[in-house]
């Protein structure tokens, strides 16, 4: 047999053998779909890059104390996501469990930072001069400072009897029956917390009767609240944990030095505590995100600019979504930021305060704050877009990004002007549904302003970025994901305005438009995906063969869980306040 016939026979044999092993399927998976990058068809330059791609990170390297890193991650996650938000709720309702739970949180943070130090001693320095180490020292200092301020702040409340008042139903009555109010013109000026429209009369009576009933069961005659030292032992129904808690708190708060310091510097302590308490949550968020970047060696060299651009901008939308959900759940209703009507009476205003002097008749709405922040961000972003190429010529990409900054400046200014124009409209919207003497009102707002410019800005940001072509297909699709998310959220925010204009608020209670739930979801998910669309994260996905559906699916699921946890916390807060 000659060579040609031998080769032909071999091919027939192999073909016959392969045919017998074939399994009929409708569609074979494409090699490039979902396959690691090195298994795809690449140009020589691309293959050279990916063959040199280094997957070593602090999370994948070998270390004798690798377990300490995971202890750090776990304790930080539990403290940041679960324990600290619980302390914020307990502090809001002035619960005596605040300090004990805060102590647990602080212990977790200390354990977390010590574990990080143990790991870093044995690990090589693969990320020289990273920010995470410095931020860890700041976190330790801030945690200790915050705890000391919290103890002194609560000590001043304990000494003044504010906690005892909070636990006494008759001194914490949230509603006043409408028959005790006179809202007709010239009747005086009730406080905003008691201004409830007649349409809400039945519900108010029921709630008030429930509170009064509770009062009668505890207050036989003219009972007087007990002193802080004796009240904790008065109620035999108290649990042993409550007795132990109050005994420890009493010994700490009544310590001569703590008591003297708390009484002498109470206003300063309360101010400093308020200044650090809620912002601590924002710092924990920034610290955690920085830890993810450092642990995965992201943002080294000039790549830090791409990382910061996505993390900062995505973080803004993520935070805005969290805040929007809090507004839906009723937070900041006293300021009219929970989509609720708000009234400020003249007899409650400090006329020496610049805040009240500058306040327009229609109050400052959330749309005003958003417009101001949009204008401020656009003004600063003009100078930030060229950081990666500082010193060099401006390129078309730089100008493209700066043009977006121009949109922010223009839309922000238009929003501020629109707020000024709508001030009288907002004031008259308050008067149209309540029987209040206009002369008694310093300012009032229906809880929103039909100002389209904040929504306009977010909508066009989403649209423009969804059309922003990237170097790879997966990066382009991920940008489309968060771009469309922001656009969808803007659409439902417009529906919120329409709903409130068709069905105006009739009382001071949060209106809770259902469209805000979808808006919040879109903003949180869009912000989270925005943060993950940075170049190095996309490269990590491509190298491992993960598609754009990975980011979408994982983020949608995690965001739904996060929203559920936030809503549970805020519902729990409302329940504690009612009790």
From TrEMBL:
Q: Quick one: where's region Disordered?
A: 211-231
InterPro entries (UniProt xref):
DUF2427 (IPR018825), YTP1_C (IPR018827)
Coiled-coil segments on the chain, per record: none
- UniProt entry tagged with the keyword Transmembrane helix: yes
Sorted alphabetically, which keywords does the UniProt record give?
Answer: Membrane, Transmembrane, Transmembrane helix
Query: DUF2427 domain: from which residue to which, for each copy?
Result: 52-153
Report whether Transmembrane helix shows up as a keyword of the record.
Answer: yes
Bilayer-crossing residues are 69-90, 97-116, 136-155, 265-285, 305-326, 404-422, 482-502, 514-532, 552-572
The uppermost taxa in this organism's lineage are: Eukaryota, Fungi, Dikarya, Ascomycota, Saccharomycotina
UniProt protein name: Uncharacterized protein
- Per UniProt, residues of the Protein YTP1-like C-terminal domain are 284-574
What superkingdom does the record give?
Eukaryota
> What organism is the protein native to?
Cyberlindnera jadinii (strain ATCC 18201 / CBS 1600 / BCRC 20928 / JCM 3617 / NBRC 0987 / NRRL Y-1542)
């Amino acid at each position: 047999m000659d060579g040609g016939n031998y080769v032909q026979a071999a091919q027939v044999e192999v073909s016959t053998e392969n045919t017998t092993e074939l399994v009929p399927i409708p569609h074979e998976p494409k090699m490039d779909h979902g396959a690691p990058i090195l298994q795809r068809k690449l140009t020589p330059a691309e293959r050279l890059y990916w063959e040199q791609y280094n997957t070593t990170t602090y999370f994948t390297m070998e270390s004798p104390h690798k377990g300490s890193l995971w202890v750090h991650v776990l304790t930080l996650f539990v403290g940041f996501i679960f324990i600290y938000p619980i302390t914020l709720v307990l502090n809001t309702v002035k619960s005596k469990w605040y300090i004990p739970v805060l102590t647990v949180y602080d212990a977790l943070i200390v354990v977390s930072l010590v574990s990080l130090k143990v790991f870093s001693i044995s690990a090589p320095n693969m990320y020289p001069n990273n920010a995470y180490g410095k931020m860890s020292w700041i976190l330790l200092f801030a945690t200790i400072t915050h705890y000391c301020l919290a103890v002194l702040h609560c000590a001043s409340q304990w000494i003044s009897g504010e906690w005892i008042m909070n636990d006494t139903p008759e001194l914490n009555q949230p509603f006043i029956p409408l028959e005790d109010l006179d809202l007709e013109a010239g009747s005086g000026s009730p406080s905003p917390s008691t201004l409830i429209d007649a349409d809400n009369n039945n519900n108010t009576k029921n709630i008030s009767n429930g509170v009064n009933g509770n009062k009668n069961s505890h207050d036989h005659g003219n009972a007087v609240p007990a002193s802080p030292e004796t009240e904790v032992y008065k109620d035999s129904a108290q649990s042993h944990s409550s007795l132990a808690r109050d005994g420890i708190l009493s010994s700490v708060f009544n310590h001569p030095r703590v008591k003297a310091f708390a009484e002498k510097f109470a206003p300063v302590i309360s101010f400093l505590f308020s200044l650090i308490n809620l912002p601590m949550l924002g710092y924990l968020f920034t610290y955690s995100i920085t830890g993810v970047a450092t642990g995965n060696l992201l943002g080294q060299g000039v790549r830090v600019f791409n990382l910061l651009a996505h993390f900062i901008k995505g973080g803004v939308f993520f935070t805005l979504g969290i805040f929007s959900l809090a507004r839906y759940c009723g937070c900041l209703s006293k300021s009219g930021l929970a989509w609720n009507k708000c009234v400020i009476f003249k007899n409650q205003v400090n006329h020496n305060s610049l805040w009240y002097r500058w306040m327009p008749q229609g109050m400052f709405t959330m749309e005003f704050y958003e417009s101001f922040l949009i204008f401020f961000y656009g003004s600063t972003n003009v100078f930030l877009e060229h950081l990666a190429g500082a010193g060099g010529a401006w390129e078309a990409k730089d100008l493209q990004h700066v043009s977006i900054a121009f949109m922010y400046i223009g839309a922000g200014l238009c929003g501020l002007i629109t707020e000024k124009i709508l001030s009288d409209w907002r004031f008259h919207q308050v008067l149209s549904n309540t029987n209040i003497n206009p002369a008694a009102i310093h300012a009032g707002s229906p809880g929103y302003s039909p100002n389209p410019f904040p929504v306009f800005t977010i909508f066009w940001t989403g649209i423009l970025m969804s059309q922003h072509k990237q170097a790879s297909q997966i990066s382009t699709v991920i940008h489309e994901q968060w771009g469309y998310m922001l656009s969808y959220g803007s659409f439902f925010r417009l529906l919120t305005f329409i709903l409130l204009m068709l069905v105006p608020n009739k009382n001071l209670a949060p209106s809770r438009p259902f469209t805000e739930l979808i808006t919040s979801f879109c903003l949180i998910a869009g912000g989270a995906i925005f943060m993950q669309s940075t170049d190095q994260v996309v490269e990590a996905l491509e190298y491992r063969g993960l598609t754009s559906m990975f980011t979408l699916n994982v983020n949608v699921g995690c965001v739904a869980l996060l929203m559920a946890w936030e809503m549970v916390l805020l519902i729990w807060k409302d329940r504690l306040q009612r009790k």
